[in-house]
Specification:
The chain has 112 residues and is an alpha+beta fold. Helix content is 38%, strand content 20%. It starts with a strand and ends with a helix.
Length: 112
């Protein structure tokens, strides 16, 4: 019964025409891959995940500089959503995604 949005186009191989169409429809850079529209009792408005493949780095070796300009844009977008009351994360691989979703949903249930 949870309402969510998953950007299924992420990471797919699109034809040039499809890629242009996708870019026209999604003009905001850094829009997250997964949004769970569920306000839990921790007063979060929802959960937002930016999903990365196993082994993909968020930061360079210095631990402070983002690994790419694209990841920096995504982090800035997550920060904007965090300031609007959303719990936000980068998630690495599907196991990390599942853990973060379960933790978020159950933290709302267990505090009721």
């Amino acid at each position: 019964g949870l309402i969510y949005h998953f950007d299924f186009g992420t990471g797919t191989r699109l034809s040039k025409k499809q890629a242009v169409s996708q870019k026209r429809m999604n003009r905001i850079k850094g829009h997250p891959d997964f949004i769970l529209y569920y306000k839990n009792n921790s007063n979060w408005s929802g959960l937002v995940l930016e999903i990365k493949r196993y082994g993909e780095r968020i930061f360079k070796k210095d631990g402070k500089t983002y690994a790419s300009e694209h990841i920096k844009e995504q982090a800035e977008y997550l920060d904007k959503l965090f300031k609007q009351g959303f719990k936000t994360y980068f998630a690495i691989g599907y196991k990390d995604c599942i853990e973060k979703i379960v933790e978020y949903v159950w933290s709302g249930v267990l505090t009721k």
